[in-house]
Design a protein that fits this description.
By secondary structure, the chain is an alpha/beta fold. The protein contains five helices and nine strands. Among the domains are: about 55-125, Histidine-containing Protein, Chain: A; about 135-205, Histidine-containing Protein, Chain: A (2-Layer Sandwich), CATH 3.30.1340.30. The protein has helices at about 15-20, 55-75, 100-115, 135-150, 180-190, and strands at about 25-30, 35-40, 85-90, 90-100, 120-125, 125, 160-165, 170-175, 195-205. The strands form three sheets. Strands 3, 4, 5 and 6 form a four-stranded mixed β-sheet that branches. A three-stranded mixed β-sheet has the order 7-8-9. The chain has a two-stranded antiparallel sheet with strand order 1-2. A hairpin with a 2-residue loop joins strand 7 (about 160-165) and strand 8 (about 170-175). The N and C termini lie far apart (about 50 Å). Residues about 1-50 have low confidence and may be disordered.
Length: about 210
C-alpha cells in the first residue's frame, strides 16, 4: 500500500497558514501514567508564554487530583465520610475540607506527596467534623463571586488563577508574576465575605 501525503492529495487543499500552525496531540497512557506528545511545526516557538499551563500540565493536574482521591480512600477506610477537596495546579496540590483526626491529616500529606509529578503539598485540612451543606454552598458562592470579579477586571487573565474557598478563606493558585499576584489579591479583598487570603502562587518572571 502506498502512503498518501496529508498535504498533497488532490481532494484536500489546506492553506499554508494552517500547515505552519498544525499541532498534533497524542495522549499515551501506559501503566496508569499519562504522557503527552506534542508535534509542532518547525517554525513555531513552543511554550512562549511561561504563565500559561501547557495541555500536558493541565492533563497531569487532573490526573493528580484523581489519583489523590483514589489513593486516600483506598489507603484507609477512615478517610471515607470526611469532606476532602483536592486541587492541583502545575503540580502544586492544595487540600481543604475536614477530617476527623490529626492522624488522618498527617497521613493525607504523606500519601499525596508520593504521587508522581506532585511538587508540593499544602495541607489546609481542618481537624473537625465535616461542615454542613450550607457551609459548602457558601464556599462555592464566595469562590464564584471572586471568579466573576476577576473575569470582569480589564487586562487581568483570570484563567490563570485557580480559586478555592473555605470558611471565608480564599486560596489563590496559579503561575503569576509578582504584579499579577498582587492584582489578584487586590481584587479578592474587595469581595464581601472574604476573611483571609492565602497565596499559593508559583511566581514567574514577566514576559519580555
Amino acid at each position: 500500500m502506498t502512503a498518501t501525503s496529508l498535504w498533497a492529495g488532490p481532494k484536500l487543499r489546506i492553506p499554508l497558514i494552517l500547515r505552519n500552525t498544525f499541532v498534533i496531540g497524542i495522549l499515551l497512557i501506559n501503566s496508569g501514567c499519562s504522557t503527552l506528545l506534542l508535534i509542532t511545526s518547525a517554525n513555531q516557538l513552543a511554550d512562549q508564554d511561561h504563565g500559561k499551563r501547557t495541555l500536558g500540565a493541565r492533563i497531569e493536574d487532573q490526573s493528580i487530583e484523581n489519583k489523590a482521591f483514589i489513593n486516600l480512600y483506598n489507603s484507609d477506610k477512615s478517610f471515607r465520610g470526611n469532606r476532602i477537596i483536592i486541587r492541583s495546579y502545575n503540580g502544586y496540590v492544595l487540600l481543604t475540607g475536614q477530617v476527623k483526626t490529626a492522624d488522618l491529616k498527617k497521613k493525607s500529606t504523606s500519601i499525596i506527596r508520593n504521587i508522581r509529578h506532585v511538587r508540593r503539598v499544602y495541607n489546609e485540612l481542618e481537624v473537625t467534623k465535616s461542615n454542613s451543606i450550607s457551609h459548602h454552598l457558601n464556599d462555592l458562592w464566595l469562590t464564584g463571586k471572586v471568579r466573576t470579579a476577576m473575569l470582569f477586571t480589564p487586562y487581568f487573565r483570570s484563567t490563570r488563577v485557580k480559586l478555592t474557598s473555605q470558611n471565608g478563606t480564599v486560596y489563590l493558585m496559579g503561575l503569576l508574576t509578582k504584579q499579577q499576584t498582587q492584582r489578584a489579591v487586590d481584587i479578592t479583598k474587595e469581595i464581601h465575605g472574604v476573611k483571609k487570603i492565602v497565596k499559593l502562587v508559583e511566581e514567574i518572571k514577566p514576559s519580555t
